[in-house]
Amino acid sequence: MFTGIVEELGEIVAIEHLGDASRFQVRGPVVTEGAKHGDSIAVNGVCLTVVDITEDAEGTRFSADVMAETLNRSGLGALDIGSRVNLERPMALGGRLGGHIVQGHVDGTGAIVDRKLSEHWEIVKISLPAELSRYVVEKGSITVDGISLTVVDAGPDYFTVSLIPTTLALTTLGVKQAGDPVNLEVDVLAKYVERLLGRDNGTQDKEATS
Fold first, then answer.
1. What mean pLDDT value characterizes the chain?
2. Closest by alpha carbon to 2, among 133, 141, 134, 190?
């Protein structure tokens, strides 16, 4: 479980293509501190399992296997060597929930539509798959490339977020431009509510016709 508070900007240092999967090597000295085989690290909002950890003259890196399903459903397949990525370790039990509940399970991808610069922040418009729009509400939470953000405006196929200087400086959203893809994870609580209400309605309808 993650919170969407990015700990550091890492870098893709190697990609090994394995047919229906790829093995990524990611440099990230902060998130690899104390990490071991089998631990989880979120890369641009995608929960990946650490295969091994190595060190070289430029710092510590970890490797993770990415299956075809993940490559197809997220923006990880578009990454190249040298790409910067948002990294976060799972929240420790008893830690502070700085953002919101993030599973690291990408629901879909969007793209940067445009950016509007203000004096102290930026408004960024991001496209949204139509099937996810019902989970996105004004002032609600959404995860963009692993970053917990608050929705400013929610449309039928887009939403906007307001980014403070810290977010711009410490995450990939500071450099992404119009057309660049982003991973999206909607608030899991909204999906559970929808499922529960659907079951309740289904039960009531069945009872009414029996």
1. 91
2. 141
Same domain for 76 and 129: no
Cα gap 20→3, rounded to integer Å: 30
Q: How confident is the model at residue 97 (pLDDT cuts 50, 70, 90)?
A: confident
How many DSSP H helices and E strands does the chain contain?
3, 12
Q: How far is CA 33 from the centre of its chain?
A: 21
The per-residue pLDDT for 199 is 58
What pLDDT, in 10s, does the model give residues 172-202?
999 999 999 999 999 999 999 999 998 554 4
In sequence order, what are the residues at sequence separation of 6 or more whose Cβ sits closer than 8 angstroms to the Cβ of residue 203? Answer: none
> What is the rounded CA–CA span in Å between residue 121 and residue 174?
11
Helix (H) or strand (E) holding 206: helix 188-209
pLDDT of 127 > 70? The answer is yes
Instruction: Give me the CATH number covering residue 121.
Output: 2.40.30.20
Query: Where in the sequence is the domain holding 141, given as residue range(s)?
Result: 108-196
User: 151 and 137 in contact (C-beta within 8 Å)?
Assistant: yes
Contact present, 9 and 107 (Cβ < 8 Å): no
